[in-house]
Write a structure and sequence with these properties.
Layout (H helix, E strand, L loop, with lengths): L10 H8 L5 H13 L3 H11 L5 H18 L4 H10 L5 H17 L6
């Protein structure tokens, strides 16, 4: 597990990355939003969008970012929880591994886990 925090990307920078091509910055955009943003709904939206990205590293990191949101806010929408659950069936092993780890974190950190 990497304990180095992701770089702090501004909201505008993350928004610009969402519609751009795959890049190293895009790979960490969801993690940056989850660690640094104060707006849970916006950060969750970023993670949700990137969880459907064609690149497995982007998807996996977005799924992992949901765990950070749960840790920080002790809350996560049922839609976000469903995305994590569905990611367990992703064709890519990295995404499935992140989903499994994230589900464990959700159980520890959410008031509404599994409800």
């Amino acid at each position: 597990m990497n304990t180095t925090p992701p770089p702090k990307l501004s909201r505008d920078a993350i928004e610009a990355l969402l519609d751009g091509p795959p890049s190293p910055e895009l790979e960490v955009a969801a993690l940056s939003a989850a660690v640094h943003a104060d707006d849970l709904l916006w950060a969750e939206e970023v993670c949700s969008r990137l969880a459907g990205h064609p690149e497995p590293r982007v998807r996996g990191n977005a799924v992992a970012a949901f765990a950070e949101l749960a840790r920080r806010f002790h809350n996560l929408s049922f839609i976000a929880q469903a995305i994590v659950q569905a990611s367990q069936r992703d064709p890519d092993a990295y995404v499935r591994e992140q989903a499994a780890a994230t589900l464990a974190e959700l159980q520890r950190n959410l008031r509404n886990a599994g409800r």
